[in-house]
Amino acid sequence: MALRIVDQPTGKPAPKAQPAPDAPHQRNPGFPLDLDWVGRVRMNRSALERRAGSIGARRSVKKEWQAAWLLKAITLMDLTTLNSDDTAGRVERLCAKARHPLRSDIVAGLGVEDLNIRPAAVCVYHSFVGTAVKALEGTNIPVAAVSTAFPHGLASLDTKLREIEASVADGAKEIDIVIERHMVLNGDWQALYDQIRAFRQACGDAHIKTILGTGELATLNNVAKASLVCMLAGADFIKTSTGKEKVNANLPTSLAMIRMIRWFHEETGIEIGYKPAGGIASAKLATDYLALMKEELGTHWLQPHLFRFGASSLLTDIERQLEHGLTGHYAADYRMPMV
Amino acid sequence: MNKIAEIFATLDYGPAPEGAEQANAWLDAHDRKFGHFINGAWTKPGKTFASDNPATGKKLADITDGTAADVDKAVKAARAAFKSWSALSGFERGKFLYAIARLVQKHARLFAVLETMDNGKPIRESRDADIPLVARHFYHHAGWAQHLERSFPDHVPYGVCGQIIPWNFPLLMLAWKIAPALAAGNTVVLKPAEFTSLTALLFAEICEKAGLPKGVVNIVTGEGDTGAAIVNHPDVDKIAFTGSTEVGKIIRAAAAGSGKGLSLELGGKSPYIVFDDADLDSAVEGLVDAIWFNQGQVCCAGSRLLVQESIEERFIAKVKARMAKLRVGDPLDKAIDIGALVAPVQVARIRDLMKRGIAEGAVVYEPDGDLPAAGCFLKPALVTNVSPANSLVEEEIFGPVLVAMSFRTPEEAVALANNTRYGLAATIWSENINLALDIAPKLKAGVVWVNGTNQFDAAVGFGGYKESGFGREGGREGMASYLKPAWEKSLKSADAVLGKSKAKALSGPHGEPVEPRGRANPLDSASIDQTAKMYIGGKQARPDSGYSRPVHAPRWHAGRRSRRRQPQRHP
C-alpha cells in the first residue's frame, strides 16, 4: 500500500524510495539532524506495554512451524561473550559452538542439513577480535566487536575512534558502539548526532550498531528519540543494551524502537536493523520477538542484515526445544554442547 | 523440499489449534441435550432448539426452550431459597462465591474452549479476557458480601432477580449478573441467550459442585418468550437485562408500575477520539482493541473513530496497514485475531446495513485475503466518507465495522462524540493530560478511557447514559443495583394506593396497563404533592408546566410484545 505522509518532517533529506523486495540492501547513508522530527516523537508507555504484553498470547507457532522459527532465530543470533574474565580459550569455545550450533543428530532429525544453520555473527570485546577471526576462518561468520569504551562509553572521543579503527583493523566486520547516555538524558541531540556520525565514519565498511543502553534512558520517549538521532546519523542497526544495565532488552522498549525504524523507513525508504540484547534466554521469548517484528515491520525484516539477537544461553534453550520437538522429551542443558 | 525448510523461508504462522477434547467430552456426558437447572436439579429436556458452533455451522447440542411454566417453577424455587439465603451472614455467602471463583479457575480452559465453540470468539479472548474476568467478578463480590453491613447499612436485597443476558460475552455477563445478586443475598433466575447457553449450563454444574444451596441459582434456557415470562412474572422483584436497546425499551415498559427493580445495559456507538498529539501507532493498536475485539460484538466497542483532520490521512493509512495484519479464521486457533460472528442472522444483518450505508455514499475498505469457506465470518472493515447522517454512523452495527470521521477542534470533537442516542463508553487519545482531562467529563458516556480502551475490572462500575441504559455493574455502584433501602420494602404498590378497581380501570381489554391520558381525573393524586421546587433563571419553575395527571404506566404497544429469535445483545 502506498502511504502518503501528510505531515512530513521539514528539511527531510532523501525522497522516499521503495526498493524492490529482492533489491540489494541499501546501507543507511545518514541524513541531516532533524530536531523538528525528534520533537514530534510520542511514545505512550502503558499502551506500548499493553501491545508488547499481548504479542506472546496473540501469536504462537507449533510443531514444524516452531522448529522452523527457532532455526531462523539461530541464524539471527549474535553469539556473544562479553565478560570481564573472558580469555582466548573461552572465545575459541564460543566460536567452536558457532561452527556447530546444533547437535548433528538434531540437524539430521529435522532434515535441515542443507539450510546450513549458523549464527549471524560472533560478538566479543576488542581484545579478542583477532582470536575470533582466526577461530572462525573459512566459515563466513563475521566477527562483531563492542567498541567505544563498552559498556559505559565515557572515554574521550579520540580514544573511542581509535578503538573502532583498531577493531576494524583486526578484522571486525561489525562494530557495536555505545552512546553516552547523558546526551539523551539532557536532550543534547546535536552532540549525540555528531558523535555517532564520527563513529560511523571511523567504521568505514564495517556495519555500525548503536547501543542505546535503554535501561538507563528512563523513558520510552527518550529511547525513541535516541533511536531516531542514531538512525539520522547513519546507524545500520539500533541495539537496546550492553547487557550490563539493570534492565536490558524487553518487548515494550523493542516496540518503541522498531516503530521508530518503521517511521524512518516510511520517511526515507532506508531499512534499519534492530538488535535486542541481554536477557533473551528462552526459545519462547525469541519467537515472541520474531512475531513482534513480523507484525510491526513485516517478515522481510527477519533477515540477518535487519534483525539480530544479542545472546548466548538462548542457543542452548533453542537446542533443547528442538530436541523436544523431535523426541517429546526435554533434555537437561548439560546434554547440549556448552556455548 | 523438507517442510521445515519451506517454513524457514516463508516464516508463516501455521495452525496452532487449542484442543476441544474436554469440551466435547462434557457435551457428550450430557448426551448433547440439556434441560433447565431449577432448584438444584436438572429438568428433563422439553421442546428443544439447536445450539450451533458459528465457526463451523455444526450443531453442538440441543437446548430446551423454556415455557412460562418452567419459569414459574424456577421463580418458586428462587423464592423458596431466598429466605434462608438472604438470612446467611455475608461471610457465609462470600464463602460460596469464593468457591465458585475457584472452581471457575480450576476449569478455566474448559470454560474458555466451550465459550469459543458456542460463541465463535477467538480462544485468546475467551482464555485471556472473558474467563479470568469471570473469576475476578466472583472473587470481588465475595469480598463485597462480607462488607455489606458496613458499606450499605439499612439496605436489603430485592428478593428474586430475573436476569436476561446477551450472547456476546455469555459467561462474563452471567458473572456480572449473578455475582453481585448473590453477594447481596438475592436469589436468581437467569436466562442465557438462545445462541449461547452452554457455558451457563456448565456454570450450573459448578454451582452444584460448590454446594450452593438449592434454588439460589436457577438457569432457564430459551428464546424471547422465555425472557418475557421472566419479565412479566409477578413474583420477580428485580429485572436485570443486558441486550439491545429495542428489547430494553419493551422490558422497561413491561416493568413500569409493577414495583420491580430494573437495570438495563443496552446498545452503544462509542466514540474513539484521536487528537493530533497522540502516540498514533499506539492509538491504532488501541483501535484494534476497541472495534475488532470479539468481532466488534461489544456493547462499548469504539465503533466511531473521530480523528483530528491534520493527521487524518496518515492515521487512516496506519489503520489500513494494521488491518491487513489481522488474522481472521478458526476461533480455536491461538493465533487468530477475529473469529466467527455469533450466528448467520447477524452476518446477514451487518451485510444489509453495509449495503444501506454504501448506498448513502459510504466508502468501505476491507483488507485482502480469504475468509474460511464455511462459518459466520466477516472481514474487518473501515468505513470512510460518512457523516453523522449516514446509517452506518447512526446505528449500532455490532460487527467488525469501524466508521471514521474527522474533526478540527476539541469542541467539534465533543459535539460529534455526543451526537448519538447512545452513551456507553468513549475513548480519548492524546499525550496532553490537560486536553484529555478537559474533554473526558464533557463526553456523555458511562465510562471514558484515556489512552487505552476496553479496560474492565470488577471494581469499576460499567453502564450507560441515554439509550445505553441505566444502572451500573461492578464496583460499589454495581452492588447498589442489587440492594434497596429497607424502608422501600414498606412502600405500597399502585394497586394498594389506587384501590384494585381504579388500577383495573387503567387496564386494557387484556389486562395490560394503558395510557390514562384523557381518562383519569387530573386531581386523582393519592398523596401530598412532593414535586421538587426548581429555581431556574432566578424564578421558581415547576416541571409540570401547570398541567398534571397521574401516571401509572407508559403507553403500551401491543404489537411489540413478542419477539422470537430477536437477538439480545450486550450494550
In brief:
Chain A has 339 residues and is of the alpha/beta class.
User: Which structural class matches the secondary elements of chain B?
Assistant: alpha/beta
Name the quaternary structure.
heterodimer
The CATH topology of chain A is TIM Barrel
Biggest sheet statistics of chain B: 7 strands, mixed
Q: What is the β-strand count of chain A?
A: 8
Q: Level of helix content of chain A?
A: 40-55%
The CATH class name of chain A reads Alpha Beta
Tell me the strand order in the biggest sheet of chain B: 14-15-16-13-12-18-19
Q: What class do helices, strands and sheet pairing of chain A give?
A: alpha/beta
Round the Cα radius of gyration of chain B to an integer and report it. Answer: 25 Å
Estimate the global geometry of chain B from the Cα principal axes: globular
Q: What is the count of distinct domains of chain B?
A: 2
Helix count, DSSP H or I runs of 4 or more residues of chain A: 13
CATH hierarchy: architecture of chain A: Alpha-Beta Barrel
DSSP helix fraction of chain B: 25-40%
Order of helices and strands of chain A: HHHEHHEHEHEHHEHEHEHEH
Q: In CATH, what is the homologous superfamily of the largest domain in chain B?
A: Aldehyde Dehydrogenase, Chain A, domain 1
Which key phrases capture this entry?
heterodimer; A: 339 residues; alpha/beta; TIM Barrel; 13 helices; 8 strands; 45% helix; globular; B: 571 residues; Aldehyde Dehydrogenase, Chain A, domain 1; Aldehyde Dehydrogenase, Chain A, domain 2; 2 domains; seven-stranded mixed β-sheet; six-stranded mixed β-sheet; 19 helices
